[in-house]
Write a structure and sequence with these properties.
With 251 residues, the protein is of the alpha/beta class. It has two domains: 117 residues, D-Maltodextrin-Binding Protein, domain 2; 100 residues, 3-Layer(aba) Sandwich (D-Maltodextrin-Binding Protein, domain 2), CATH 3.40.190. The protein is 42% helix and 17% strand. Helix 2 packs across helix 8 and helix 6 crosses helix 7. It starts with a helix and ends with a helix.
Length: 251
């Protein structure tokens, strides 16, 4: 081939390669996303870390996007998205997509009733909570009114934002039941054991409702970024990285 033709072909090939790389670079965006203020081990605002932040951040990075987290009281998260202050939100808290697009669940919260094994309490219906003192995370009464309204009306229901105190209080017998996510309870149990003279007593984790993945879907203003996130999340799970992130906080 003539040297000039070779040069033209090479130039054209390089140009096509350059142009082919532009769409990814052009479509890669910073994604401002609303998260709850502090939900260990899922979210640590002071270090921009946690299971949920790492999963979402790495899933977005799969297609070149950069997660920029912003933190709010949990109840404000969907409101910030509705008011267009952010590009995405970790959850809609049941308010609907608000003009956005739901992604696949990045994490699941598996809420259970936790009781001391030595108490031999069995909770299979709301009436089984009669006479028991129960502590839960903020907003639990609104989410599970059929289980908690009677306990609240009896003056035996309390909400505690510091879930480490829930674990310590149950262990000391200050209340009878903790309503908590399994992983959150386990995380704080590990932290107390590592950082104090705390000796964890055996507990029973009693399921009372089926986990619905749709309760924990992130919502995105951009359909394309939602699709990119879903692709990245699928890759994290297929590669084993998703489980590795969980294990790094819970083992």
């Amino acid at each position: 081939m003539h040297p000039l033709m070779t040069l033209r072909l090479l130039t054209r090939t390089l140009l096509l390669m350059l142009l082919g790389s532009l769409p990814l670079a052009a479509s890669a965006q910073e994604v401002l996303m609303a998260f709850g203020e502090k939900i260990p081990p899922f979210c640590f605002p002071e270090s921009d870390s946690g299971i949920e932040l790492e999963v979402i951040g790495e899933a977005l990075a799969f297609k070149g996007h950069k997660l920029i987290p912003r933190y709010y009281p949990l109840a404000r998260v969907p409101l910030e998205f509705k008011m267009a202050h952010v590009d995405a939100a970790m959850t809609d808290l049941g308010t609907g997509a608000q003009g956005g697009y739901f992604g696949d669940p990045a994490v699941l919260y598996d809420n259970v009733f936790v009781t001391l094994t030595q108490r031999a309490l069995k909770i299979s219906k709301p009436e089984d909570l009669n006479g028991l003192v129960l502590v839960a995370f903020p907003g639990a009464l609104k989410r599970y009114p059929e289980w908690l309204t009677a306990v609240d009306q009896a003056g035996h229901y309390f909400e505690q934002n510091n879930q480490e105190l829930q674990v310590a209080g149950l262990n000391k017998g200050r209340f009878d039941v903790v309503l908590s996510d399994k992983n959150i309870f386990h995380y704080f149990e590990l932290q107390l054991t590592r950082n104090s003279l705390f000796k964890a007593k055996a507990v029973d984790m009693q399921a009372f409702t089926e986990v619905d993945p749709n309760d924990y879907r992130p919502v995105f203003r951009s359909e394309k970024i939602r699709d990119d996130f879903n692709a990245g999340l699928a890759q994290l799970k297929a590669s084993g990285r998703y489980q590795a992130i969980y294990d790094s906080y819970l083992k």
